[in-house]
Amino acid sequence: MIEVLQAGPLTSVQDLGRQHFRDQGVALSGATDPLSLRVGNMLLGNEISAAGIEWMFGNGKVKFVRDTWFVVTGAECFAQLDQKPVMIGWRMMARAGQVLTLRTLKSGLCSYLCLEGGIDVPVVLGSRSTDLQSGFGGYAGRVLQKGDCISLFHTESAIQKSVGVLLPHNDGVIRVMEGPEESQFSPDAIHRFYSSPWRVKTESNRMGFRLDGPVLERMVSHELLSHGILPGIIQVPPEGKPIIIGVDGQTTGGYPRMASVIASDLWKIGQLRPGTDILFRKVTPEEAKHAYQEQQFYLNKIHMGVV
């Protein structure tokens, strides 16, 4: 197992989320940057959806109780293992008694600690992720705290050496496809949405990322019927400032949907640190499909390099 010596402000056990319960009002939850969690698990030979620890804003410290292979992915967090630097995106061995420290993040929002075998917590509704809004799943349904001892699945390790990969670069440009209600906004509003920088507000969290920028005027005033929404949907409430739905976001909504983040860029949402600027770029379905194929090619190369 590992022992938590220091937990940041929002540290939790997460996997790839609850995939089949939105019709019952259950949020997806899971890693806000699912690509980083996938990469870490692939480097360790884990199931791709194995649970790890999401360190939001960094500032964490854990002690290894037994020898364990681990990977730190996601945002750069100046990690150290007993005062020795840990490279982000590299598989490394920790000996029993060693301490891993994650410092304040250089950029981005979340770092991930993936461990060989994955974290052993109960499966709730098909997932080991923590639903922080409803208080279930993960480790006792809450954020991690100092003194928590977390069990790992035991595996017969086949890992022989350290190996690493180059993690994707976040350029701050988020590719989106047109939303169902884009036509309800004025041409000027649509132009501003795609041409203006948007700053992530401090009121953002795992439920949604609020953006500050120009006001987007809607040309119609009637209210919409409630409709299903998913992480990555960009809604525009009456004040005209967009909100990107996060992994803990509600399952239904009534605000107009300006756009939807493509699947290959959902990981970028999980790294939207308050105070940073982003740009939206509209793509076609064909371009979105090509981006997905490129990401799968990247993941396949990792798999081929570590099997």
Structure description:
There is one protein chain. The protein is an alpha+beta fold. The protein has four helices and 22 strands. The strands form five sheets. The protein has a seven-stranded mixed β-barrel.
Name the descriptors.
307 residues, alpha+beta, six-stranded antiparallel β-sheet, 4 helices, 22 strands, 15% helix
Strand and helix map with partners:
Blueprint: E1 2-6, E2 10-14, H1 34-44, E3 52-56, E4 58-64, E5 68-74, E6 80-81, E7 84-85, E8 91-94, E9 99-104, E10 110-115, E11 130-131, E12 136-137, E13 149-150, E14 173-178, H2 187-195, E15 198-200, E16 208-212, E17 227-228, E18 233-235, E19 243-245, E20 252-253, E21 257-261, H3 266-269, E22 277-282, H4 285-306
Parallel strand pairs: 14-22
Antiparallel strand pairs: 1-4, 1-13, 2-3, 3-10, 4-9, 5-8, 5-10, 6-7, 6-9, 11-12, 14-21, 15-16, 15-22, 16-19, 17-20, 18-19, 18-21
Alpha carbon gyration radius: 20 Å
Order of helices and strands: EEHEEEEEEEEEEEEHEEEEEEEHEH
Tally the helices.
4
- As laid out across the biggest beta sheet, the strand order is 14-21-18-19-16-15-22
Total strand segments: 22
**Major sheet, described briefly?**
7 strands, mixed, barrel
- Round the mean pLDDT to the nearest integer and report it: 93
Shape: elongated
Tell me the span between the first and last alpha carbons: 25 Å
Helical content stands at 10-25%
Low-confidence stretches: none
Structural class of the helices, strands and pairings? alpha+beta
Oligomer: single chain
Q: Strand percentage, roughly?
A: 25-35%
